[in-house]
């Protein structure tokens, strides 16, 4: 969803995904069933694993110090240098180990044969448009439980476990239907409505805290030949980055939980209808940048940076991903969803923030201890601050920003998190049911509505049908909020 997602990662080209034709059924695309092939078998062949090393204070995970390490990183909005830098630290710790580094945007395509053959890498950044389906991997028991890593001493302070150094909610995101932790989300993404303080100031406007104010700002922009909004029209699963927390703000977090749980008629909740109608009004009043449905995420970000539109639903990776076209005086910032009206169940400031860039250690990895040790290094202060400085994004390590001067977008993300306090939502549908969320809800439904080809009522009915089909599909493992 970095991805992810930073997410992840996150991210997403983060995400050269799914063409509209594919989502509409005009051409075939890999779906959950296809992805299931990548997780075939019951997993686990300890005979293929390297012998463990000697457990010491310096080597708490008992890494075999001479065993090779095989790493595959998603090459998206965060690039891959941060991983290479952490790998250099690994080599210093274990000079006898060879580290193989590969980067790709074709995660599922390239790694499916390796999973099928029982020779997956030791550590994978499973992000981007072609990521492997998390729910399927967990359901097929293809991953290593990372609680061993989480209970190990943290890289900087042996008195603290790794789990005690992470941001709230990160561990829980990696759990599905038990206490095992299958995924470690490395980036920490703040989602919302991104804007330029400079461009709003030119309109004598501030970020609109109510929907009425949002419409007024968009109308003022329209009169000057500027669009209110643009978004990744070819990848419209970006729209939920601001739409989902808007739904929660209106109706309460239980509305999103019911959606995640595939409850019957969850999408027919009044809060969903109200949020969809508000967004549809942006289209109906001509506040969407012309041609947006045909834009990639990069093209929409560039148009936004060029001042052609004021607002962009996105994640905090956008600062790094769009930096080549961002003016120096842009003053990038993120806003939480505007309040619909006084009956909203949650206060202004409610937003979606969660782990991104999902890292996994396959169960059949030859060197799982090495994969976890590299993650332990990455979750140290040095690697975390390196990531923050190089890609303008937070990590799941809590406290990595201490002493750093943050760029505008990242500083704004920190401020938004502080304002939100406990009012942070984390829709799980994006990692529990990847194909449903991206291809169906995002591209084939919400994208069609925002392009004016479906009404909100039609869109809700279509999404509910998609959700019901997934709920009834016995080949898709189901998950529930605890």
UniProtKB/TrEMBL annotation:
The keyword Transport applies. It comes from the Bacteria. NCBIfam families: chitin_NgcE. Keywords: Signal, Transport. Residues 38-60 are annotated as: Disordered. Residues 45-58 have a biased composition (Basic and acidic residues). Belongs to the bacterial solute-binding protein 1 family. The keyword Hydrolase does not apply. One of its GO terms (cellular component) is cell envelope. It comes from Streptomyces cinnamoneus. This is Carbohydrate ABC transporter, N-acetylglucosamine/diacetylchitobiose-binding protein.
């Amino acid at each position: 969803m970095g991805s992810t997602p930073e997410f992840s990662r996150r991210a997403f080209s983060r995400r050269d995904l799914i063409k509209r034709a594919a989502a509409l059924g005009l051409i075939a695309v890999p779906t959950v069933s296809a992805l299931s092939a990548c997780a075939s078998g019951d997993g686990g062949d300890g005979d293929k694993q390297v012998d463990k090393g000697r457990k010491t204070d310096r080597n708490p995970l008992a890494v075999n110090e001479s065993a090779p390490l095989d790493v595959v990183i998603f090459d998206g909005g965060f690039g891959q240098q941060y991983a290479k830098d952490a790998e250099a630290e690994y080599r210093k710790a274990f000079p006898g180990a060879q580290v193989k580094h590969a980067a790709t945007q074709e995660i599922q395509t390239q790694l499916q044969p390796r999973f099928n053959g029982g020779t997956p890498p030791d550590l994978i950044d499973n992000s981007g448009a072609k990521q492997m389906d998390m729910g399927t991997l967990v359901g097929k028991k293809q991953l290593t439980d990372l609680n061993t890593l989480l209970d190990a001493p943290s890289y900087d302070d042996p008195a603290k476990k790794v789990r005690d150094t992470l941001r709230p909610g990160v561990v829980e995101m990696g759990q599905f239907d038990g206490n095992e932790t299958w995924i470690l989300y490395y980036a920490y993404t703040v989602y919302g409505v991104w804007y330029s303080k400079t461009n709003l100031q030119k309109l004598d406007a501030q970020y609109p805290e109510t929907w009425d104010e949002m419409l007024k700002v968009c109308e003022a922009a329209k009169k000057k030949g500027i669009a209110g909004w643009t978004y990744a029209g070819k990848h419209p699963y970006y729209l939920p980055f601001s739409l989902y927390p808007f739904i929660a703000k209106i109706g309460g977090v239980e509305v999103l939980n019911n959606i995640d749980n595939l409850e019957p008629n969850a999408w027919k909740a009044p809060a969903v209808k109200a949020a969809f109608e508000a967004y549809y009004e942006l289209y109906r009043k001509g506040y969407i940048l012309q041609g947006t449905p045909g834009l990639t995420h990069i093209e929409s970000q560039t148009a936004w940076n060029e001042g052609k539109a004021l607002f962009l639903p996105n994640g905090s990776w956008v600062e790094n991903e769009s930096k080549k076209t961002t003016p120096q005086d842009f003053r990038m910032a993120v806003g939480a969803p505007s309040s619909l009206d006084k009956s909203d169940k949650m206060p202004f400031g409610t937003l979606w923030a969660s782990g991104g860039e999902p890292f996994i250690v396959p169960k059949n990895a030859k060197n799982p201890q090495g994969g976890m040790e590299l993650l332990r290094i990455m979750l140290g202060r040095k690697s975390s601050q390196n990531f923050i400085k190089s890609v303008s994004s937070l990590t799941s390590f809590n406290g990595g920003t201490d002493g750093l001067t943050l760029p505008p977008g990242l500083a704004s993300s920190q401020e938004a998190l502080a304002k939100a306090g406990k009012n942070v939502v984390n829709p799980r549908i994006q990692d529990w049911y990847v194909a449903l969320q991206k291809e169906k809800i995002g591209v084939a439904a919400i994208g069609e509505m925002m392009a004016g080809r479906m009404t909100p009522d039609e869109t809700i009915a279509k999404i509910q049908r998609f959700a019901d089909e997934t709920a009834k599909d016995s080949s898709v493992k189901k998950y529930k909020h605890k």
